[in-house]
């Protein structure tokens, strides 16, 4: 029977080619977009879920509370991991992971590395690593041992076995005790190599910078809220007594755990890896539903509009004894063929789009795994039922006498339904188009916002930390200053390129002492002129004032406002980097060193170049070869790592730019599908109203009157859709913009423009069919069957 239904369906497709192509194309594009969004969202939500113990692993982070400010750290003290295992029976094991700044030497060549970490043997009992060479039982047990991933081993040893061989890391021989498979792209911590580290000498909680990632494995699936309440007092018990001995009072340390699968979406923690965005996942999931809904509404709209053409067929079938359920099965069977064709086209389109999506997102999306197959198996029958269910129900309900008399044309109920469906499509398309305009406007605001600092043509070169390499740094700086192609050089630590340091700060304001955590930069007198950062009060650092190196302080406007000072010049500050009695010598205008998602925070600048951590050079890209030559001459033990400051800053908006690209692309698809359906609907309407058009022409109607008659409904529907879509878009845009500390304002034109664009597109798409119908010879329209 199904073959019979499909044969009838195939004949219908061939008889109504235009309508069938519109249905198949609209459905296939909608399904393809839905599949691509599903792959992306599923990829984001599956971070670190591949670990066999994922539901029992958590990361423990640190919150430092002080007067008026809280500091969230992704890391913790090195002593936290063993203490958790000792004090809490529900914790089975713990592991510490630290970033390792490693340079590899092979013969005369040196290589910089990425994603190398120090860790300990327990990492293999907590996380899932697949060993190719060696085993977890013998990995990282001895000092100066290392475990490599497959791709890292291939980079340094080619196709030769690497187990047992030696790799020179920072001048020290490390023996390779294991080779593991590369981690999936859904790894929040992309590990390329693990180096053994000895934690046995650590005795104090405050001896490190809280930059160690701590992960714990529970004996059974935990209640993290209850566990967080249990570990809340650890800071008071262990850390604060040490702080009190150092006379750093007023701070409270709190530890907090988060599930491993939530770490990828963790926000606002210093020292963390790049993170995903749950809000964007929700937005794109909604986009997938909306785009598929538009495609399905198109199908339903066109199918119900064409129902009158099949009225006599339904009447004849009912007269000869067909029951409604048989008719429903027939029309569902016909829909299943058309939907099946659309699915085949959609899968082909999705396969073509996956490589582009992978390039844009830097992912490895593919239709692999049982979840993708299950999604396909569930979505196919759902689309068949949603697309074919209502039209089949409508057709099966036709009364034989009415159908055989051809009295179905223009029934009010059918017309009203089509108008409602069209309005829903326009609401979705308009809301998405308005969102695109506001998204683009915010990106333009970011691009043209005065950031208070000139980052153009500034090259940043991080300096090595080992004493041997650092010995050549002073001569390197002098050589840079002598170069004709270099317009400025500044040296410091914690500059607004490689991050910044946080330090305890104590001031007096309004007769009261105030203590809080603050950002610290160590700079030299050339820093402000090179980056064109203006002073609003006082002076810059100068070698003419010997006291500047010992106690001179520059603060920003946000600092002055936060502490409540009137005239800050000459006032005292006690803070980080052994600053005992600092004096404010100048106030700089607020400038951004973080993205516009964040407000400008209080900041302290100290005169400090020993030891230097970065050097900034004002030059052009053409001078890079010369910089490499100078670096190799003075610091030959390390490869030069450099980047342009503006590019580094703009990387903070990578997620925003990718989201804008995806939003634009899928909004374009949604509008295309809507216009495609509108074209098909207008084509059917002009055919159904052909005799009316002919009579009006005979009675003297002009071309403009006929065009207005046939197009005014579309304009009216867009007007109704605007009244619904634009307030929804305004609410959504306001919530999204609130994620930025600084954002563009919402203007009326941001909503007028989408309406105008959609109206223009609708009139352009339908204009051809309307004008063609209006110009047709009325005799042909009035000729009877």
Notable features of this structure?
13-stranded mixed β-sheet; seven-stranded mixed β-sheet; globular; alpha+beta; 785 residues; 18% strand; 25 helices; single chain
Give a short synopsis of this structure:
The chain is α+β, with helices and mostly antiparallel strands. The chain contains 25 helices and 24 strands. The relative contact order is 0.11.
Describe it for me?
The chain has 785 residues and is α+β, with helices and mostly antiparallel strands. The protein is built from 25 helices and 24 strands. The strands form 3 sheets. Strands 1, 2, 3, 4, 5, 6, 7, 8, 9, 10, 11, 12 and 13 form a 13-stranded mixed beta sheet that branches. Helix 1 (2-15) crosses helix 10 (324-361) and helix 2 (17-45) crosses helix 10 (324-361).
């Amino acid at each position: 029977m199904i073959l019979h239904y499909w044969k009838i369906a195939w004949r219908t497709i061939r008889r109504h080619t235009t309508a069938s192509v519109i249905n198949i194309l609209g459905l296939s594009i909608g399904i393809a977009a839905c599949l691509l969004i599903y792959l992306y969202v599923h990829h984001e939500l599956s971070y670190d879920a591949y670990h066999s113990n994922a539901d029992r692993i958590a990361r423990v982070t640190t919150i430092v509370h002080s007067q008026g400010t809280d500091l969230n750290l992704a890391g913790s003290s090195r002593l936290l991991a063993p203490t958790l295992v000792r004090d809490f029976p529900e914790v089975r094991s713990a592991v510490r992971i630290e970033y390792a700044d490693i340079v590899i030497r092979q013969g005369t060549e040196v290589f910089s590395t990425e994603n190398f970490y120090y860790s300990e043997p327990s990492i293999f009992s907590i996380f899932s690593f697949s060993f190719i060479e060696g085993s977890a039982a013998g990995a990282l047990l001895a000092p100066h041992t290392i475990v490599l991933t497959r791709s890292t081993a291939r980079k340094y040893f080619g196709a030769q076995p690497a187990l047992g061989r030696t790799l020179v890391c920072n001048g020290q021989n490390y023996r390779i005790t294991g080779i593991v498979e590369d981690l999936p792209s859904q790894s929040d911590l992309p590990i390329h190599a693990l180096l053994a580290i000895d934690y046995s000498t650590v005795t104090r909680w405050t001896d490190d910078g809280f930059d160690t990632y701590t992960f714990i494995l529970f004996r059974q699936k935990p209640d993290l809220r209850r566990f967080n309440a249990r570990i809340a007092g650890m800071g008071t018990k262990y850390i604060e007594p040490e702080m009190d001995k150092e006379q750093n009072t007023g701070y409270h340390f709190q530890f907090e755990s988060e599930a491993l699968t939530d770490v990828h979406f963790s926000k606002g923690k210093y020292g963390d890896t790049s993170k995903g965005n749950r809000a964007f996942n929700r937005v794109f999931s909604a986009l997938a539903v909306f785009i598929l809904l538009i495609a399905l509404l198109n199908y339903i709209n066109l199918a119900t509009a064409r129902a009158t053409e099949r009225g006599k067929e339904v009447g004849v079938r009912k007269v000869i004894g067909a029951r409604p359920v048989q008719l429903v099965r027939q029309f569902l069977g016909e829909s299943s063929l058309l939907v099946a064709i659309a699915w085949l086209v959609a899968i082909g389109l999705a396969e073509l789009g996956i490589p582009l999506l992978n390039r844009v997102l830097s992912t490895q999306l593919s239709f692999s795994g049982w979840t993708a197959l299950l999604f396909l198996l569930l979505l196919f029958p759902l689309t068949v039922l949603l697309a074919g269910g209502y039209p089949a129900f409508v057709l099966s309900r036709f009364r034989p006498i009415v159908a055989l008399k051809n009295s179905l044309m223009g029934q009010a109920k059918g017309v009203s339904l089509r108008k409602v469906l069209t309005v829903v499509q326009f609401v979705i398309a308009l809301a998405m188009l308005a969102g695109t305009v506001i998204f683009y406007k915010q990106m333009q605001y970011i691009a043209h916002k005065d950031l208070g600092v000139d980052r153009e043509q500034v090259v940043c070169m991080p300096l090595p930390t080992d004493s041997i390499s650092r010995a050549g740094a002073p001569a390197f700086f002098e050589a840079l200053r002598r170069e004709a192609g270099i317009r400025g050089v500044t040296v410091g630590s914690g500059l607004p390129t490689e991050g910044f340091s946080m330090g305890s700060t104590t001031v007096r304001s309004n007769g009261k002492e105030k203590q809080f955590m603050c950002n610290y930069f160590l700079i030299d007198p050339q820093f402000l002129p090179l980056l064109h950062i203006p002073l609003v009060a006082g002076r810059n650092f100068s070698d003419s004032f010997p006291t500047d190196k010992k106690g001179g302080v520059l603060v920003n406007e946000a600092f002055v406002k936060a502490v409540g000072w009137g005239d800050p010049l000459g006032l005292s500050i006690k803070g980080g980097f052994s600053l005992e009695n600092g004096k404010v010598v100048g106030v700089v205008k607020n400038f951004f060193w973080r993205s516009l998602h964040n407000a400008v925070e209080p900041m302290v600048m100290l005169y400090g170049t020993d030891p230097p951590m970065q050097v900034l050079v004002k030059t052009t890209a053409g001078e890079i070869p010369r910089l490499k030559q100078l670096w190799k001459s003075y610091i030959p033990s390390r490869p030069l790592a450099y980047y342009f400051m503006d590019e580094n800053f703009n990387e903070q908006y990578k997620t925003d730019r990718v989201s804008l690209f995806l939003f634009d692309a899928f909004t374009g698809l949604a509008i295309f599908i809507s216009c495609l359906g509108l074209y098909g609907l207008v084509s059917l309407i002009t055919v159904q109203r052909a005799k009316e058009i002919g009579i009006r022409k005979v009675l003297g109607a002009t071309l403009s009157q006929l065009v207005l008659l046939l197009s005014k409904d579309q304009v009216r529907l867009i007007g109704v859709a605007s009244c619904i879509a634009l307030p929804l878009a305004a609410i959504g845009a306001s919530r999204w913009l609130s994620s930025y500390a600084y954002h563009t304002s919402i203007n009326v034109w941001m909503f007028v423009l989408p309406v105008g664009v959609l109206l223009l597109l609708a009139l352009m798409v339908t204009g051809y069919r309307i004008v063609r119908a209006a110009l047709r010879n009325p005799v042909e329209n009035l000729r009877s069957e």
